[in-house]
Specification:
heterotrimer, A mainly alpha (290), B alpha/beta (938), C alpha+beta (249), B: 938 residues, alpha/beta, 7-stranded mixed β-sheet, 6-stranded mixed β-sheet, 25% helix, C: 249 residues, alpha+beta, Alpha-Beta Plaits, 3-stranded mixed β-sheet, 8 helices, binds ligand MGD, binds iron/sulfur cluster, binds molybdenum atom
Amino acid sequence: MHPAPSVIIFTTLSGLGFGLLFFLGLGLPDVSGWVAFIFFAIANALAVGGLLASTFHLGHPERAWKAFTQWKTSWLSREGWCAVLALITMGLYALGVVFLGQRWNLLGWIGALLSLATVFTTSMIYTQLRTIPRWNMKLTPAMFLSFSLAGGSLLAGQTSIAVPLLLLAALVQLLYWRQGDKAFSASGTNLGTATGLGQRGAVRTFEPPHTGTNYLLREFVYVVGRNHAEKLRVISFVLAFALPILLLLIPFSHFFALLAVLSHLAGIATSRWLFFAQAEHVVGLYYGKR
Amino acid sequence: MTDQPKIDLSPKVSDEIRKTTCYMCACRCGINVHMKDGKVAYIEGNRDHPVNKGVLCAKGSAGIMQVNAPSRLRKPLRRVGPRGSGEFREIEWDEAISTAVGWLNELHETAPHKLAFFTGRDQSQSFTSFWAQNFGTPNYAAHGGFCSVNMAAGGIYTMGGAFWEFGQPDWEHTKLFMLFGVAEDHDSNPIKMGIGKIKARGARVIGVNPIRSGYNAVADDWIGITPGTDGLFILSLIHVLMKAGKIDLDYLSRYTNAPVLVNAAEGPEKGLFLRDAEGKPLVIDRVTGEPTAFDKPGVRPDLSATYEKDGVTHRPVFHLMAEKYLTGDHAPEAVAKRCGIPASRIRAIAAEIARVAFDEAIELDQEWTDFRGETHSKMIGRPVSFHAMRGISAHANGFQTCRALHVLQILLGTVEVPGGFRFKPPYPKPVEAHPTPHGDRRPGRALEGPHLGFPRGPEDLLLNEDGTAQRIDKAFTWENPMSAHGLMHMVISNAAAGDPYKIDTLFMYMANMSWNSSMNTKGVMEMLSARNEDGKYVIPRIIYSDAYSSEMVAYADLILPDTTYLERHDCISLLDRPICEADAAADAIRWPVVEPDRDVRGFQSVLIELANRMSLPGFTDDDGTPKWKDYADYIVNHQRKPGIGPLAGFRGENGDKEGRGEVNPDQLNRYIENGGFYVAHIPEGADYYKPWNTAYQDWAVGMGIYDSPQPYLFQLYSEPMRKFQLAAEGHGSRQPPDHLRQRIKDTMDPLPIWYETDQQGNEGFTVNALTQRPMAMYHSWGTQNAWLRQLHGRNPLYVPTKLMQEHGLQDGDWAKVSSPHGEITVPVMEMAALNDNTVWTWNAIGKRKGTWALQEDAPEATKGFLLNHLIHELLPPKGDGMRWANSDPVTGQAAWFDLKVKIEKTSPPDDVESQPEFAPIKSPVGTGPKDLAWKVGK
Amino acid sequence: MTQLPTSTDRKMGLVIDLDTCVGCHACVISCKGWNTENYGAPLSDQDAYGSNPSGTFLNRVHSYEVQPEQGSAQLIHFPKSCLHCEDAPCVTVCPTGASYKRAEDGIVLVNESDCIGCGLCAWSCPYGARELDMAEGVMKKCTLCVDRIYNENLPEVDRIPSCVRTCPAGARHFGDLGDPDSDVSKLVSEREGMDLMPEMGTKPVNKYLPPRAKDMIEEQIDILAPLLAPVAEEPKGFLGWLDKTLEKL
Ligand SMILES: Nc1nc2c(c(=O)[nH]1)N[C@H]1C(S)=C(S)[C@@H](COP(=O)(O)OP(=O)(O)OC[C@H]3O[C@@H](n4cnc5c(=O)[nH]c(N)nc54)[C@H](O)[C@@H]3O)O[C@H]1N2
Ligand SMILES: Nc1nc2c(c(=O)[nH]1)N[C@H]1C(S)=C(S)[C@@H](COP(=O)(O)OP(=O)(O)OC[C@H]3O[C@@H](n4cnc5c(=O)[nH]c(N)nc54)[C@H](O)[C@@H]3O)O[C@H]1N2
Ligand code: SF4
Ligand code: SF4
Ligand code: SF4
Ligand code: SF4
Ligand code: SF4
Ligand SMILES: [Mo]
């Protein structure tokens, strides 16, 4: 898949933002007033910024509101609803915490759940696609959720929770990569089934239907070199998990905490880039590409 | 579901439909042009049209992009920069016409041969040749010489017509269809419709072609033959079939010259037919045992009986054939290796042909009467049919190969019978019904007859007293005696060399000669811009008519910009290359369905204007009054013979006569009302056995196709060829130069033969290199079409798996491809379904920078390439001091497909562009817009 | 609207004959022409005369080579447009309801005025049948020529898709695949019509007729060989045979 910056930014930032909101909803850290304001501002900036970014790639952003209509069937629509509900709920909750000195716990918990639900719905947009075997796995929501929780706890400054969550996310990441690499061949889809000609012999693409490019090739056919991908995996793993854990384990300092957050952010963005760039759409088969 | 959006299921399709004829290839399908707000909105096939019956190919459907192409020329141009630069000044039509008249009129009056007027793939040759004839120049031809004259001439000399546009398989009845060397052909839509029909019946299609794409991909059996060996393969089929007696003896004895007696007496008549006092070929009558004129009522020609006279045994043609083709050197085992086809497969194909032709014969309950007066109660069908085109004709042995294939069909009795091959009117038309060539120079007067024709023997060659050629292209000389279509590919090189003489003006019409239409493209560009020592151009003046900004435009001094096909009158005439089908004569017109939005004029009308200004005979009355004001006027009012004009339909004062009839001033309107065409159906019972069927012959006379009935015999044995051989053997007053004697003896065999075409100088060049037409592109002009160029915007060299591996090549790698003549560097792609020793590419995709209103970095110009750089019009020197033409020795047909190359892997060129590269041409029309979002009427 | 209808009255679709398609691209261009002028926004082209031309097409013709275990490689032309799947994932993923499957005939359409151009439907289509138009920013796909097949402004014979009407080889068939007695359904059962990527669970309505077995002529030689029995080995003998045979004529 073409790793469009808008979706990478969107999923990375909003995952982090809703992760932070989740912890804020649970009252972790238990802050109020200006400090709380800053926490909520960061969380909302990330979540809302991410959502906004996701509209950049729309052909008609002015009609984006129509995306709320199909929550019965569409994960994208559900994501929209969850996001809005989460933001409203957490907004009210934040109002109490920041300005009224009130912690409406039930509201917070509901907000926290909605925040996680948003991340889950986001992940399901990808997971549901049978056309992209690397995404069409249970590990995809697991990965989105674990990343979101790990990132959220990190941002929330919950060191003791963050370390195990980062470890968990790291583990999920490794499993995801392992299974993902096998997913396409395991899906059973190949040029033979794509053309229905597989029974007759080995099928190979000959002339493409057009010598120029088209939307499908631009959107779905993106090739990352194997070595390049390996390197990026190492970098992303180190930045997203190894370095932050290390920084959390050494005695606390605000600087290191900030560094851990930035490192995590960069690592997750890299992982997300790979998530898209390495995802092979079955339509590539028709073009002799995977 | 109630909340489903309401959509308009019956939107208005258009304001109006205008019916005319497509132009994007010589198939000439009928089209419905849907108009909105006076503009072309959508083009579809015309269901009522005899050619395409509603279907339309990609090119036809993309017509809207052709009429609106940014590459359209806009105004007459006068060259200001050097030739080839593309620097022009726009001029008014007045200036353009008077310039042309200024150049031409003097030539007409003093030295008409100094004008060479050649046209490309235009569809008005009867008119352009009429113009040239009246100008008085011997130097006229269309592009047939480099296209497929071998097929046309091979067919006409053998059976009075060929595949090409002159005939087609009986798609309704055929049960086995065999296709030789066709990628697309002129009859594009009918062939596809026909294959579709055959497939729907579950009948068998066999494709003989080194490349398994297109039609050959859907063939049930693919014969990936070694290029240039089809003749050998066909003669082997003939061998096997004859040997097994699986030939139609009845048919051969009645309708062919198989029973005709051949003179065996030594001397100037040897090998010619024995004839009676009236000149009619003799056969032995089985009833009387006596030599009898072949067409005598009641005669039953004997295929076997010989005739003793003066101690010499004269044998019938069939004896000679048995002697020639039954020998072991034609056995499948003897040819298998050279053809690249296992002997077992050759036998299997022969057996299948025999089975279908004889065991699955069909009978139509249809009575008919033959030219000898005998009435037959049935029509016997042999449902095996063949079709072939340039794959066999564009080789230096193509004429004989085409003859061989026609002979195979005749032996099987599958020509003009149900299920076999059927002629389209005006064919069948024997050689005798065609003119001979004319090439005299007659200052101020018209030529005595048409330029092109079919020589019957050395007496018809166009030679001067001193043996030099009368024509600039040296057509109808000993080098290629039967060059019935001229040799367009030799015009520029001969003119540049001043051999046989210098010319003054080269006048060309829709032929992209400085690019894809020429062999030796770079050389041609140099010849077109070569200068004498005095700095003047060797070819002093070049006038050219194109509708688009092609490569050739840059090499002309004066450009007469043409309209596009929807903006002018055209005539697809029975006098020329009509749109007939096997059971109907048909012709068609084009008419201006839109007005040009530029200062351009239909070229035919411009020719009329030029003729009128020069008072050319034929175009003006004795007092100089013009007969026609423009082409539309000519189409309606010109009469070739009384009652016969360009259009056969709606003749006569009331428009109720067909074929023959007085001029009808309303004729064009009647055509328009009728959908742009006219169909005259052949009556039932006249629609098969046409060459011998009195009902057909009478109908054809009524239609004005013949002046009198022309029944004839198929010429398995070609007497005109034997006449040339006799001259080479020293008989007769017209003698070939000594260096050509042996070649004429060898190649002008009156019975089909095969000879190797591997050319001298090919040592080390062992791989066959071919081109194919892409179905969605028409030569060079598909490129300017924004839709079509997305399909074929560049052309890789397709290399068979074996050669890919041998050379360590992978898709996208680059290879240096060289021939004895030149070298190109191009990207390669693997193809498995391909003859092991053949590479190929699509024809005419590569473009020169700056042309066709494309940006200079267009893939056509950076990655696309021409194979033409590797092909030369002359063969490499062989040390005899002469340069032999890369042509068929009989017809002069350009031997495009004899090319042999060497390929080597190489690194991509520095600029990653195909080589050779040429300097960009300055575009006279700028470049096209960036984005298109087309919606007419919004 | 992104709910799929539980069933459709008819299942209109195409049957494409891979045994007959010669790969001429006529259907591609005819489709481009009709749909540029009709349903929704025109199919635009970018860099139309430049170095990297690209445009929206609703139908494309691929070609594949198949190497059987024995014998020559085969080439198969392969047209592909929307298959109007019964379980169309492109419909259910659409957040706006722009994508829908018509209850009356099963045609899958995009209501362009609702489409936000998110691309998700194209992501969910295994067949590459949807292309986002770069000029209009909305999703385009084969409409099965819904504005032709019921169009009362067209003569009845022409109420078929543009691509079907134009196909010179007759390799494209149109009809109701939900009706087992329709011509197309019969064709599918006679010729063992197949689904593309059945494992995707999309249940395509369009069917493909597989190419017939190829290059089998030599296998018939045992039956055919007697046809080639020589009438005589020597040319002389041949002429003897000729005389005898001619007597019978
Ligand atoms: N779409 C489209 N249609 C066209 C044209 C076009 O440009 N585009 N051009 C028109 C013109 S001018 C012409 S002349 C016709 C030509 O129509 P075709 O005769 O179809 O000509 P080519 O495309 O040159 O294809 C030649 C075929 O012969 C095969 N071939 C080459 N050598 C041999 C051989 O030795 N033996 C056998 N058996 N096969 C061989 C090649 O592989 C190729 O398939 O098409 C006309 N129709
Ligand atoms: N390598 C290789 N080369 C080949 C062949 C091959 O098989 N292989 N085939 C050869 C054959 S068979 C042929 S026929 C030739 C074809 O060669 P050409 O006949 O030269 O074919 P085109 O490229 O179509 O060039 C025709 C010119 O006509 C112009 N034109 C188009 N429409 C109009 C119009 O309405 N009016 C006017 N005045 N001009 C118009 C076009 O812009 C173009 O410049 O190519 C030959 N070249
Ligand atoms: S075959 Fe195509 S290009 Fe040729 S005349 Fe017919 S529709 Fe036009
Ligand atoms: S028009 Fe017909 S034959 Fe041509 S590519 Fe399309 S389906 Fe195949
Ligand atoms: S082919 Fe693709 S676009 Fe068409 S219905 Fe099926 S999934 Fe949807
Ligand atoms: S691109 Fe349009 S039709 Fe497709 S999913 Fe998005 S909104 Fe729906
Ligand atoms: S049915 Fe209509 S929209 Fe669909 S591919 Fe055919 S022409 Fe295009
Ligand atoms: Mo040609």
